[in-house]
Amino acid sequence: MTALAIDNVWKYYGDYPALRGISFEAQRGACVAMLGRNGAGKTTLLRILAGLSRPSRGAVRVLGMDCLSPDVRRATGVLGHGIGIYDELSAYENLRLFAALYGLERPHQAALEWLERTGLERVRDGLVREFSRGMRQRLAVARAFLHRPSLLLLDEPFTALDDRAIALLQGLLRESLASGSTIVMSTHQLREALELATHVALIVKGRLAHAGERTAAMVDDPGYLYRTYGEA
Amino acid sequence: MHYMRQVWTVAAKDLRSELRTKEALNASLSFALVILLLFSFAFDPTAELTREISGGLLWLVFAFAGALLLNRSFARELENDCLDVLVTSPVPASALFLGKALANWLLLLGIELVCLPVFGVFYNADWARQPAWLALVLLLATWGITVIGTMFSALTVNLRLRELMLPMLVYPMLIPCLMAAMQLTTALVAGQTPSGDQLAWLRMLVGFDIIFTALSVALVETVLIG
Fold this sequence. Notes:
The structure holds 2 protein chains of 2 kinds. Chain A has 9 helices and 10 strands. Chain A is of the alpha/beta class. The longest helix of chain A has 16 residues, at 163-178. Chain A has helices at 42-49, 70-74, 91-101, 107-117, 133-145, 163-178, 190-196, 216-220, 223-229; strands spanning 2-13, 16-27, 31-35, 57-62, 65-66, 76-79, 151-155, 182-186, 199-204, 207-213. Chain B has one domain (2-225). The mean pLDDT of chain B is 93. In chain B, helix 2 packs parallel to helix 5 (93-122). Chain B has 8 helices and no strands. Chain B has helices spanning 2-21, 23-43, 47-75, 82-88, 93-122, 131-155, 162-189, 197-225. The two termini of chain B are 28 Å apart. Classes of the chains: A alpha/beta, B mainly alpha. At the A-B interface, helix 2 and helix 3 of A face helix 1 and helix 4 of B.
């Protein structure tokens, strides 16, 4: 079944086309590593998939529905550049808030469960502004996975994570893939991404240069993709 | 019911955040109190003058204090990219907007309730001669200020000069609401029961609130997503 269908998507910022006719599909259970240099258009495309921006032209269907529909939003987990948690709330209050916003039946239990899974149960009532960077990152990961999304949109998920948060995130991503979730992640960290990815989409200057299954050659030599399909 | 719970969840989050940091609340309340104090020195008000200026003075203070409060409404979501996370949640943009407007409304009402007794002391005015009517005017006009202020707070959130842009955009829009509130408050502080023209101002206040609430609810998704 198709989880993502991107059909001839263009996005203009003023006169500048940040995305130029991107089309590709991802099946349920796929993990798509979206690769490309800075400014290639990866974040723009992810923002459109997340319903944070509308395409100037073209259409996007997520889980067979419009990407702005509440059902798609309920099924989507987003981890972007910012951690997306409130500094002036406690770890528990943050997770409880997002559990309520996502309409979970037992938000209290969900928040406690994810505090435990991310090793933050001892600081559950501490304000996030007093947390270390690593603790904040783990809380952000918990926030993104709290509602057990069937589609995960991750923008540079491994950037600036400490070792513990990377291990946590990789474990959760593998668990999500095993349970049939679809993952789309943009990243510069090719090795981590390609280890997880089942598919690869390479974007060069707003155009899709290559989309297809991840091959062994890509994992063995991460530079292979850019040399073969993209900029040298 | 589910929708109202979403509205309240957003409002409770904003109230909890603001009451914990008191960033906007302290600035807004101290500004309002200082203005009331300074005007009392400037005018040396007699009972007659107080009755004449009460509506204008109070609502200008509330509107200026409100702008300080409303500026933070969406701006606080920029830290850690929280706005993106809220917009990608299944909560409709209209519920997000109404939740924020509700929190701003309660905070601004709180500031007004502190300012009224202070106004009574500084200006030697018995402002509570028509308490029920005055409460109605406060509720309606404060909603008018917050619904427009919250909408423009969303509109200007990504602007570098948002602290300047918000008042410039909001005050012209608020003229009908403020005029009605000023007229009614002046009459109520003078002890009059609203009748005739004053009831027309009250109807205008109700109409203003309904129209701008409906417009904001309809447009907020476009404002947030584009």
